[in-house]
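Case study B.
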Amino acid sequence: MRLLILILFINIYPASFANAKSETWERIVTKSQGQTVYWNAWGGDERINSYINWAGAEVKKNYGVSVKHVKLLDTSEAVSRVLAEKAAGRSSEGSIDLIWINGENFAAMKKNKLLFGPWTSDLPNYHLVDTIGKKTTTIDFTIPVEGLEAPWGMAQFVFMYDSKFISSPPMSIKKLLAWAKNNKGRFTYPQPPNFLGTTFLKQALIELIVDKKLLQREVDYKSFHKVTQPLWSYLDNLHPFLWRSGKIFPQNGPAQNRLLDDNEIDISLSFEPSEASSLISTGAIPNSVRTFVLSKGTVGNTSFLAIPFNAKSKEGAQVLVNFLMSPYAQARKQNPLYWGNGTVLDMNKLKLKERDYFTSLSLGVATLSPESLGNALLEPHPSWVNAIEKTWSKRYAIGK
Amino acid sequence: MNDKVKNYQSFLTTALRIIPLITLILFIGPVLAGLIGTILPAFGYLPALGGNGFSLDPIREMLLAPGIYNSIRLSFFTGLATTIISLALVILFCASWHGTWLFTKIQRFLSPLLSVPHVTIAFGLSFLLAPSGWFFRLTSPWATGFIRPPDIIITQDPFGITLITALVVKEVPFLFLMTLAAINQINYVQHLTVARSLGYGPIAAWLKTVFPKIYQQIRLPIFAVLAYAISVVDVAIVIAPTTPPPLAVQLLRWFNDPEILMRFIASAGAILQFMLVILAIGVWWTCEKIITYFGKKWVFTGGRFTCDKWLRLIVALCLLLVFIIAFFSLASMAVWSVSGDWRFPHTFPQTLSMQTWFNNANELYSATWNTLGIGFITCIISLVLTIGCLENEIRLGKKAQNNSLFLLYTPMLIPQVAFLFGTQIMLIMMNMDGSWLAIIWTHLIFVLPYVYISLADPYRSWDRRYADTAACLGSRPLRIIIRVKLPMLLRPIFISAAVGFAVSVGLYLPTLFAGAGRFDTLTTEAVSLAASGNRRTIGTYALLQMLLPFFAFVLATAIPSWLHRNRRGLLITN
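Model:
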């Protein structure tokens, strides 16, 4: 019943906007009938996979659009494929219809004109997005989104720790080093270029760099080594005290969570404040795990959905995205029982009933309240990612 | 009437003559196109990305990449070590135990192990050996004193020793079967009898009389193992070190880099990977010559080596260890798939649950169907082409077997990464990528050789006099093939199909590239979850990964036996 109301709502909603908009949307919905959307999204987390599966089934039921989740090891695979298609001269009938994306992958695709759009403002539910309060929904790692990708979820960098072994967690990058020195082998981070590992480096850099403003501009390679020196000497100090003495790194977040579950480490990282609660409820980590953030704040960003320039089912993709941005789908996503990823919507733009979807959600045992989560820090310009990852590899991943 | 028969016969001959040509085009075409599609960008030529001229820049930059020399060394070392260890184990075991009860017993375990995909073993092994893995859970804390897992490097060790172990476990059965096939082609009983009666110990007798005769025949399989081990991707993703990774994994990262110009460097790396395989084969070949030189001297010195009891025992134990590792690896995956909470240092799951199976039911279902469908169709096509080629070969009395064999090994000798990227571009240009056709075509490249190799010998050694008898009774050639020859060869045909199916189930990169990531097979799903280390889910995929080929083998032996239940001469009494 709830769903029915929601569908009605979605269909009626555009009327409150310009009629032209509504016609565009209706045309999209009509055209999407029977299309199959190949949605390329990182497939390394079971909970996310089931959520995608659920969304696909809903869209199939309500709009007649089929959704196939193409599971990626890394989002860059999708960028690479679109590129291969461009190289082969295929400007329509592409094999990817939708990509879960942000940051440097978005920057690369935007720069090389591999994206369709702007299209997001055609979607009725886009107008529910909190573009004022959540600035990262319009600026992706300092790159203006310009309607080329639709905001899908809010992420903030948090630390998960096992409270059975840690009573007061280290709440700054420097305290973390001191803690690691006293607890050899009990901390690590995913190997960059995994986004979570890279984020840890960015987080450390934000706290350690002298002039933080530099990070919001494109990286200057001439001064790069000088300004990032504090980061590298920090890591040089930290690595001998990491899990496996920093000679091996877990390959991504879930892998590191498994180490937490295996009791090999005491601290893990996440981009979802409620991930700990969510994992506890599925039994994937011990129920003594809790969350903490650094006292000076942690990096936050938004993840998006983008359509490649040569996508075959552009309309189907838009219908799917509109559904994914609906209060109903967003509330389920925020529910730690299913996923626990923060919504991009503005609660003030929602109707009372829709707001209830969110307010009725329980935070979960290990989730921090929004107040203790604090303000999200801005992501550095995407060019820093590449520079940091390259230097990191050169310093720590070339073997002896 | 006579004309009609003649016309008919020439039609059949022509049809059969075309089949090898079709096979060759289907088979070598994509490989060649793929190689070209890799070589051109390696020298800077890829107009769509702005590479309009030729230059050596990509190669130069590739050689400047951080850690590249360690990646190369790692790949080369692990590849050579895998091949040497596997071959030494197989040869020494054959030499020690050929003709004994143990030898017969071990043979029974070969096919099931051969049918398990490489990556499944890697999954199991990485849990078995990890500091928080099964071995330590079995021995902690009562024997080791560990309440928490020790912080030591075992899996993903920088020398790739666990990688080598995983590969050896899989390559031993392959080389073993190839050696068995070769042994059966020579008159080994006489050789051994003479040598033993002259007082040689079992190992010396075998090494001095049988080994030199069969080496020629197992050389191509050895090279295939070498090439595979040097350029393996899926196993390496699971169990190889990452700082730096082996070359093939590094290549995959480059190809997938969002920085578009990395494609050129990746292509250059793919060429390097190819050169590395050629170099390794060259090194092997040189060592072969040296060993032959000293081996001859050794044979002529006439040493009897009668006291080889200890060596024989050690070899048997090593081989046993291979099977034990395989067994526990696979068992651990099965246990994980039904486990609830299972934390260190508990030896067994604290709770059992079918939840993982239920949660992943949809995905498992579609992956299983895709795997079955792709494998089945590929096998049928491979069988038709193989039988056509073999029939043509016999009809023309061709002696070109060795040439064709070398061609068949081509896709096994060229690293997959070196041509699959180019093949992908070719498929996209033909607007075929992500289609069933593309994926089956790509699988065919890898499945066909195995089907051919396993069917060729039984097919060639079929007694022609049955055909002559049938012809005398008035049957036409096609009828003879369908009514007499194929039914009699049903068993080897089914077995070779099962071999082909097992190969298809285990293919990772080909499925990924030709399928545009759209065909989730058990192997692609499992590898995409590999990095996440969710052992429960991986366990479900791994279990199905081993069960499907296993059932294929069971069916391949059961169906012919059932069909031949009233044909005593066709039943194998074993």
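The two ends of chain B are 48 Å apart (CA to CA). The remaining cases will be described in the next quarterly update.
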